[in-house]
Amino acid sequence: MFNDQEIISTIEMVKNENLDVRAVTLGINLFDCISHDIDIFKRNVRAKILKHAARLVPVCDAVGEKYGIQVVNKRISISPIALVGACFSPEQMVEIALELNDIAKEVNIDFIGGFSALVEKGMAKGDRSLISALPRALAQTQRVCASVNVATTKAGINMDAVLEMSRAIKEAAALTAEDDGLACAKLCVFSNIPQDMPFMAGAYLGVGVADAVINVGVSGPGVVKRAIERNLEDRDMTLGSIAEIIKRTACKVTRVGELIGREVAENLGIRFGVVDLSLAPTPTVGDSIGEIFQALGLTHIGVPGSTAALAMLNDAVKKGGAFASSHVGGLSGAFIPVSEDLNIAQAAHGGFLSIEKLESMTCVCSVGLDMVPIPGDITEECLAGIIADEMAIGMINAKTTATRLIPVPGKKAGDKVFFGGLLGEARIMDVPHLDLKDSFVRHGGRIPAPIHSLKN
């Protein structure tokens, strides 16, 4: 239950501090839709999604209006298409993506995730078909999102898949060159991907999950920033005290998310899954992760001290969420996407945040190299090396890491790119040695799992 002070402070969060429910994601299991006939499969998928999702948007809008808290994005995640469509060719995979895009338009959701494959230990026929289809599927659709998991702490890193994803990213960028490689903004490469994540582009419905489930993603960087500033105005505080403020704020935000999520689930007659409290920024001033760093006393995100600040922030957010709910899942922590956060984009352009510093910060944040525009003439080997480095961070540290890299065709470091909406805009980041053609990534095979993976 909320006490009076919590209710008042939550109202303030909604009115003045950009508190919202960033995403309500309906997960739908498609394993009962499997057929060797592509037309039957598409028909089954359409019927299953429409059965569960026809009322998703109006219900989210009604619940949001009831509580005065906007549900910004309504999304669907589905079983990995590489599994449920394992028998299909790359051309048929593209057909499936187009069908999913049409379904997403029909139910009026923002994105549908799950055009995905799990290949950390090797690639089966369906995986190869999906990866081959990725560039065309993403270039020809607007609402389909894709993810490929190429590493886990238990399995190691599938370097064959890393190189294949490098090629797919380059091709997807080329096919959408007129839009600055926009297709790549809908594609994530993961290590240790969660099965219950409501945030795109990586969302998919895990194999061990129910037939249909509601997962909620709550975000409140503006709320956290203002809570820090408000308390620093009152008195000098230690970093331990600031961490406690962040934790208490995250607790309140998580409660709001679970309230909305459970009511949406109840109205739809669907099980409630998890609330994912991830501080996901937008390009809006005042809704920025980078501004939290400035509230903590750093001139810009990326200067010395940034990794320590991010570690404190991420930990405090997780602790607050865990206290507020028994069903915290997904990622829960802090995203640091470059183009989606105006403050981070400005820090990168100003030289305060390099791609190397960004990679080091991903050791302690929720995800990884997220929405990073890079020069379009980067070699496949260099791109694969960047992906492999990020996967290694996730594998060794037993955490989720990912890359959403956008090699912008025809543009170089310092040039401006504009993706629109929540995807934002940024200057292309400099990548040292982008013309390298080192043979390391071409050895292929699998980098073995670390010794601490042996926990049984």
SSE blueprint and pairings:
Layout: H1 4-16, E1 20-28, H2 38-53, H3 56-67, E2 71-78, H4 81-84, H5 90-107, E3 111-118, H6 125-139, E4 144-152, E5 156-158, H7 159-175, E6 187-191, E7 212-219, H8 221-234, H9 239-268, E8 271-279, H10 289-295, H11 306-324, E9 333-334, H12 342-349, H13 355-361, E10 369-375, H14 380-397, E11 401-408, E12 416-418, E13 425-427, E14 446-447
Parallel strand pairs: 1-2, 2-3, 3-4, 4-6, 7-8, 8-9, 10-11
Antiparallel strand pairs: 1-7, 4-5, 5-14, 6-11, 12-13
Helix pairs in contact: 2-5, 3-9, 5-6, 6-7, 7-14, 8-9, 8-10, 9-11
How would you explain this protein's 3D organization?
The structure is a single chain. β10 (369-375), α14 and β11 form a beta-alpha-beta unit. The protein starts with a helix and ends in a 9-residue tail after the last strand. The longest helix has 30 residues, at 239-268. The chain is 43% helix and 18% strand. By secondary structure, it is an alpha/beta fold. The protein is built from 14 helices and 14 strands. Strands 1, 2, 3, 4, 5, 6, 7, 8, 9, 10, 11 and 14 form a 12-stranded mixed β-sheet that branches. It has a two-stranded antiparallel sheet with strand order 12-13. It has 2 domains: 24-191, Anaerobic Ribonucleotide-triphosphate Reductase Large Chain, CATH 3.20.70; 220-453, Anaerobic Ribonucleotide-triphosphate Reductase Large Chain, CATH 3.20.70. α3 crosses α9.
Q: What does the overall shape look like?
A: globular
E-strand count: 14
Report helical residue fraction.
40-55%
Quick check: average pLDDT?
Answer: 89
Structural class: alpha/beta
Distance between the termini: 40 Å
Task: Determine the CATH topology of the largest domain.
Answer: Anaerobic Ribonucleotide-triphosphate Reductase Large Chain
